[in-house]
Predict the 3D structure of the following.
Amino acid sequence: MPTTAPPELLDRLHDEMGAAVRALQAEICAALERIDGRARFSADAWDRPGGGGGLSRVLQDGAVFEKSGVNVSEVHGSLPPDLAGKIPGEGGAFAAVGLSIVIHPASPMVPTAHANVRFIRRGAAAWFGGGADLTPYYLFEEDCRHFHRVLREVCERHEPGSYARHKRTADAYFHLPHRGERRGVGGIFFEDMGGDLRRELVFSTAVARAFLDAYVPMVERRRDLPYGEAERRWQEIRRGRYVEFNLVHDRGTIFGLQTAGRIESVLMSLPPRARWIYDHHPAPGSREAALLDVLRTPREWVDL
Amino acid sequence: MPTTAPPELLDRLHDEMGAAVRALQAEICAALERIDGRARFSADAWDRPGGGGGLSRVLQDGAVFEKSGVNVSEVHGSLPPDLAGKIPGEGGAFAAVGLSIVIHPASPMVPTAHANVRFIRRGAAAWFGGGADLTPYYLFEEDCRHFHRVLREVCERHEPGSYARHKRTADAYFHLPHRGERRGVGGIFFEDMGGDLRRELVFSTAVARAFLDAYVPMVERRRDLPYGEAERRWQEIRRGRYVEFNLVHDRGTIFGLQTAGRIESVLMSLPPRARWIYDHHPAPGSREAALLDVLRTPREWVDL
């Protein structure tokens, strides 16, 4: 259940969340540019006809990152009828402010990573939501453990025991039922925790702030590993699954399509290249098959 | 409104449709293999746990066709709850039999083409549906006119004036509202015409039978045209739109995902390769921009 609060408090939280995600966007883009060393983030400010707008920052064809988006959006107005029955709260007035990060590296040895945090308000009700998850193409268990360990620290600082809950929610959410696979090795996902909104603001921004700590070490460790056409092909097949998840299941993408967000910003999460090969199965015993095993049966990467 | 009919007649129509689409599948695959000259169609028979099954035939990495699927499916059982409110008729018992064709040629000079026909039955109600549409990457107006002319003939033979109606339905259906684009230059789309079921069976199978006449001439005319990396890249960008349409809007795909059809058969329509470049716009005055103009404002290709 979302929390209800006086409009002045909701306005203030909305403004604070906006300021926080704008600052995080600048920091994260600067850090990723330093790592990449070649390409730079573009900056496209856009307005939404129904109310609000955003700043989309995208880096393409870098030395390390093939396509990365770090977007801030702040939209408000009347809730589209399609969504009215699907989100909590009452009335037609809504506002949402959030940060969305999706990083598709060039090398199949470096995982795709995603994080987003958002504050949504409908009438007198409001809630925070977000998450972070990792989508490797080749499994380095040390990387999975590190990613989860950093997220666990953020969760446990906020509320002891919450990592286990958010980790299970992520395993349930980042799921392609039609494939019987998760899209990656998970992370955390949380929404509408129903607690004190100011504490949730602190938690949500802490998740976004921890993202680089969770992800950058594996970029540095794996960026120079050799790979060839076969590994690249596998990466593109798995990126097809990423497309399937985002277009069929991802709530943020569907929210963006239904609220007529700026389409290039909504779909910046889609990978630069994807491939669909009919009835493809990796060879038994291969590294590709080892990844699939984990996608089919999510693991615990750190102690709960 | 679907037509209601006695169960014996519905059984007979179901069986006749099944026999017709199986024969068409064999003919179409044989014709495409002759044209390709190199690759052959695989044949995968599958069972659906809830009832029914199908035969999926896919050709990959051909000389002309990069990926083509010609699938027959015959599924029946209890309607999934998600679908119960979305399709006409009453009760939980349903059956569907149909043929689905999607052809993605290697050359960007040769359009992607699609056709499907289906007979769906729910309780005592039943209807036919289907369509055919063309998705070029480069515009050859002669090809678009030919494709529509063949479809017009089939429609007008069935019911004078019906081409105009089915053509408008296709323009409305093969539409990506979030892009403000159609996925191609259209064709026809029809569903639940509410007429005599036996006449609709004849019409539906005639549409499938006309598919090769509508499509093959342009394959022969364009298959040897030269192209380079730039044209291939544009083809992959447009194929990204094809993916967006199929995963977000296509009723057959959504029906397949919700009825737990065989996933590789449901998603055989997805292109072999696709690309998403952030905020890509073709150069003004280019051939790519000329195609976009037509996708944004559907044309009449033949007299109505």
Observations:
- Residues 51 and 76 of chain B are 5 Å apart (CA to CA).
- Chain B touches chain A through 31 residues (CB under 8 Å).
- The longest strand of chain B covers residues 65-78.
- DSSP finds nine helices and eleven strands in chain B.
